[in-house]
């Protein structure tokens, strides 16, 4: 036997040993499963599961009720601390979003002829014409 044949023989033996070990473990696992099923049948697991489900539903309902109460408390707190803001027409630009410059009010026609800017964006409403407050 040459070196390669010896190595191949060793690898084959190792593979066989691993397969045998897995087969033994599987047999033990199957036996354990049978024992566990028998044990579960003997301890009346179905009644216990029904009881657990009922308890879970009760706990879930209590938790949802508590969450709802907490939510309402937080809503009341924040509505006092941060009152609801409503949109209003901007009093600075009268809802147009831009403001005529002082010079434009005086000589609007002359500025149009000279191509000078006649208005600028309103700062309070940022050109939207609406302020919140």
Helix segment tally: 4
Residue share in β-strands:
5-15%
Helix content: 55-70%
- How widely separated are the two ends? 95 Å
Question: How many β-strand runs?
Answer: 4
Shape: elongated
Order of strands across the biggest sheet?
1-4
Q: What number of structural domains do the residues give?
A: 2
Rg: 41 Å
Structural class: mainly alpha
Strand/helix succession: HHEEHHEE
Q: Mean pLDDT, rounded to whole units?
A: 77
Biggest sheet statistics = 2 strands, antiparallel
Tell me about this structure:
This protein is mainly alpha-helical. The radius of gyration is 41 Å and the shape is elongated. It is 66% helix and 9% strand. The longest helix has 40 residues, at 3-42. The strands form two sheets. Strands 1-4 form a two-stranded antiparallel ribbon. Strands 2-3 form a two-stranded antiparallel sheet. The protein has helices at residues 3-42, 45-81, 102-106, 108-113; strands at residues 87-89, 98-100, 119-121, 130-132.
Q: In a nutshell, what does this entry contain?
A:
66% of the residues lie in helices and 9% in strands.
Task: Give the key terms.
133 residues, mainly alpha, two-stranded antiparallel ribbon, two-stranded antiparallel sheet, 4 strands
Secondary-structure blueprint:
Blueprint: H1 3-42, H2 45-81, E1 87-89, E2 98-100, H3 102-106, H4 108-113, E3 119-121, E4 130-132
Antiparallel strand pairs: 1-4, 2-3
């Amino acid at each position: 036997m040459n070196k390669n044949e010896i190595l191949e023989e060793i690898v084959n033996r190792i593979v066989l040993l691993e397969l045998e070990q897995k087969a033994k473990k599987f047999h033990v696992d199957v036996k354990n499963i049978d024992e566990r099923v028998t044990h579960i049948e003997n301890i009346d697991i179905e009644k216990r599961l029904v009881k657990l489900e009922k308890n879970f539903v009760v706990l879930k309902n209590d938790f949802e009720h508590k969450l709802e109460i907490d939510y309402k408390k937080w809503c009341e707190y924040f509505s006092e601390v941060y009152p609801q803001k409503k949109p209003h027409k901007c009093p600075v630009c009268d809802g147009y979003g831009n403001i005529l410059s002082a010079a434009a009010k005086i000589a609007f026609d002359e500025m149009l002829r000279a191509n000078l800017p006649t208005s600028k964006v309103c700062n309070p409403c940022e050109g939207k014409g609406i302020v919140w407050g």
